[in-house]
Amino acid sequence: MLYDAIVLGLGAMGSAAAWQLARRGRRVLGLDRYPPAHDRGSSHGRSRIIREAYFEHPAYVPLVQRAYALWAELERACGRLLLLTTGGIMLGRPESELVRGALASARTHGLAHELLDAGEVRRRFPVFQPDDDMVGVLEPRAGVLFPEEAILAALQAAARAGAELHHEEPVLTWAAGPTGVAVRTARGDYEAGLLVLAPGPWAPHLLAELGLELTVQRQVVPWFRPVALEEAFAPERCPIYIWMVGERLYYGFPRLGDGGVKIAEHVTAGAPTTAETVRREVDPREVEALREAFVRRYMPAADGPLLDVTTCLYTMAPDGHFLIDTHPEHPNVVVACACSGHGFKFAPVVGEILADLALEGRTAHDVALFRLDRFRAGLRAAGGAADGETRA
Prior knowledge:
By secondary structure, the chain is an alpha+beta fold. The chain contains nine helices and 20 strands.
């Protein structure tokens, strides 16, 4: 065979997997239907949050700590800034899932943090106007990742290590058997010993035979020009932020090089869509709804003209956790998907995990939370594709 491993999908997770496999001396082919660092999936938008006091579950903390080390390694390799440390603050009522979860992770893993009351939040960060009964969990190591730059850096590192990367080459089918895998694209047929599937929002279609009940959610992401306190939005004065208001989550960034303040709602439930049929255009009423529900009340200094707006896609698992595992039918196929809107920061460590699973069948990282078999009913129902063939 010409290749040891084929990586299907070269977004955040796939580019990192190609890098990790190639640096271990494997002959790697990477395939993606779009140009590098494209805006059709989940890995664009100029900024992503990285944070350590992980409210979703303490099990994420060791993984994000390893990701920090790998981001630094990738920065040194490419000679470009990929991660800007700003600190981070989680804001909400003390009993909220966000605050309780962030504190649980910080205390479980002994992370540096401060618990601030609303008055102290307003004094230290005047762009935030929390309700009097809200608190803030402040952590020093959180910051901003630059996703397009990060993906290009991982692809560059993979290519330098010997990976062959094909962009604008859609995959038509893949099949796995005991002796290897076969992939057919719009340009040709390829074979390898191993297959890594990192399909992003194409996962519900690509992995339909597993019955995982994945959904794709459209996200609206605007940038606003501040109308006041512009200096206070600078990254050295304004941390990244996540707010829990009632049951809704909002997040945002300081003012970065584009001059705007990116603020959005983290929407995990709504009308499902697909990567092919998603509505890319944004109705002005969608931006106005965000202003009305959050910006004007809690960050009024950011309520200025709309500078830009885009859409991106979340691929959601039913429980909001990742899917990272070996395919239940094919031990030479590994899967990473359904990062549920909070996966980008983990990309380099997920790439490491995928390389471990593909080459050794196991990993030293604790990934029990992400196993496919937690959705046992769906996996028991899977069938009708015993050879693994499906369409991307």
